[in-house]
Amino acid sequence: MQFEVQENESIEACLERIKNQGYVPIRRTEKPIFQEVVTGKEISYEPVGRQIIFEAVINE
Fold first, then answer.
1. What is the extent of the structural domain holding 43?
2. Is the whole model's pTM more than 0.85, yes or no?
3. What is the distance between the alpha carbons of residues 2 and 17, in angstroms, rounded to a whole number?
4. CB-hemisphere CA count at 13 Å for 7?
5. Taking Cα atoms as reference points, which of 17, 10, 1, 22 lies closest to residue 52?
6. Count of the separate structural domains present in the chain
7. pLDDT band for position 34 (cuts 50, 70, 90)
């Protein structure tokens, strides 16, 4: 099962949500989010955020 840290949610709150649903996190993945910026004829990409995803398994 995958859980994504929401827009206005802290990592601790996400981990608590995972625990309350009966799961245990086993892996954390971060992906950068980029924005395309056009300056004249040049196109560049600037980081504007990140997406954090936890993979979890059922707690037995």
1. 2-58
2. no
3. 12
4. 0
5. 10
6. 1
7. very high
